[in-house]
Design brief:
Layout: H1 3-6, E1 28-30, E2 36-37, E3 50-54, H2 57-68, E4 72-77, H3 96-113, E5 114-124, H4 129-140, E6 145-152, E7 167-174, H5 178-181, E8 206-210, E9 212-214, E10 224-225, E11 231-232, E12 238-240, H6 244-252, E13 256-257, H7 259-262, E14 267-271, E15 283-284, H8 286-289, H9 292-302, H10 315-325, E16 331-334, H11 341-348, E17 352-357, H12 361-375, H13 383-386, E18 393-399, E19 404-406, E20 412-414, H14 420-431, E21 434-435, E22 446-447, E23 452-456, E24 460-461, H15 463-473, E25 478-483, E26 485-486, E27 496-500, H16 538-543
Parallel strand pairs: 3-17, 3-18, 4-5, 4-16, 6-15, 16-17, 23-25, 24-26, 25-27
Antiparallel strand pairs: 1-18, 2-18, 5-7, 6-7, 8-14, 9-12, 10-11, 13-14, 19-20, 21-22, 22-23
Helix pairs in contact: 2-3, 3-4, 10-11, 11-12
Amino acid sequence: MNMADRRQKLELTWIGKDDRPRLEPRILLEDPALSHHAPKRVSQSDMFDNMLIHGDNLLALKALEATLAERVKCIYIDPPYNTGSAFAHYDDGLEHSTWLSLMRDRLECLERLLAPTGSIWVNIDWQEGHYLKVLCDEVFGRSHFIAEIVWQKRTSRENRAAIGSSHDTILVYAKVPPNDWKRHRNLLRASTKEAANPDNDPRGPWDSVPFSAQGWRPNQMYSITTPTGVVHKPPKGRCWGATEDVYKEHLAEGRVYFPKNGSGRPRIKQFESERKGLVPMSLWSADEVGTTEESKKEIMSLFADETPFSTPKPERLIRRILEIASSEGDLVLDSFLGSGTTAAVAHKLKRRWIGVELGDHAETHCRMRLVKVVDGADDGGITKSSGWTGGGGFRFYRLAPSLLEKDNWGNWVVSKSYNAAMLAEAMCKLEGFRYEPDPETFWLHGRSTESDFLYVTTQNLSRAQLQFISEQVGSNRTLLICCGAFRAKRDDFPNLTLKKIPQAVLHRCEWGRDDYSLNVQALPPAEAGDEPGADGDAAESSAQAPTATGKPAKRPSKKPARGMQQLPLFDGAKKEKGKR
């Protein structure tokens, strides 16, 4: 082992770990026909700009980075568990190395989206849970690990197994260490099932706790006489919960309760209105947050006679997570949306939300479920306990096609699916500008600062045209021009930076790739004599393993915009047909 090897950090390694995708920052296209909003505002807290995104979640996360970096308060994901069993809507049986690469790439994107006070909750089982813990330590930092939640997902006994699995694990990480994050997390609502008011106390319902503490303190070892005359000393091995002076204050305030008709040991009243909440624990029972069986019933009540997912999560479980990790108005993200539970619960709890789903059920199930939530037609889950009656809305988006495509001669060119506005927005993302077109200024499509702007056109700009633009920009501002071609030297105009498209971005990304899902259900069995390493083909055969369907991912069903047209050079205020 050489010195470089000795200096390596402790890490999890796997085949292909160093292979990282060069993601294209796609733009998002709204499909207004599938967006949905309540007909009127129900309350001032209604959220209308929630996002339901249909497409590859890795590309979708990359698309969100430019506008939502460090803005998401709570992320919950329930990725495929890599169990080897094929679910109806997920290819859930990825080879270990492929699964780890899939998760690493997505976790890194999610880490960039997480707010400084935010947290991520990852639902997993024993199949990959221990590998995932080490991977999350690398991505988020071991010192930012918050907790391992054990959720009792089933109560029925599994008689076919050697030891029946009755729980899932939820790994929790934050952007800051636990002692810092706990200042931002919420306490659990204290239970109210024991609260009552048998003595009609004007302060309202109450329950009680024993007036004793563990240990021995000399000033807390006095005798207490009950209203019936019974004298009590502290229980063996304990002392009273406070000094005698404090006890007398409680007595004068009517806070001391003697059970057993006034003869029992003293207890202290805790009024419901004074409860501060409970610190979350790491063991979540089925009684508290529900089971997978409960969640299946929730789905069946929404979609008659079908269960769109084999392992949906109960709304009570997601509610527990969101109430700990976020508050009303905070942004919640689920990039493995599945049957739409996270979005549905976030909406009912008045959180803003973003959900990403690759499968067709993004439209057939997630959208339909969320329409019912918005319309107040979903009576299941946490609807009644949260007081939800409907309102708000969401926008339905698809990922735009790749910006570049190959022509008949194998050259990369701007896709014919892009119109002028789409091209300008895409170039803003690629160059790190905010897309803010100005209808009064033809050359202002985006900005990075108050004095630095971007202009996009497919025209071949002459020197006279560049001179005119340079004078318009002025000496106190700068402009990046991305154009088809230009007839001037790059340094002729100090306030202009000139780039040709697509040449300037050819090597930025992997163009034309729409599917990063790595849906490998099972690697093909080795033929006799085909031992790994025998002829160096093992890695290649893995890379060429077929998808579960054997077919390429479907492109968005929405009709593409008409072919790319040249932007009007000096008439940016005119709206072009086909522009979004």
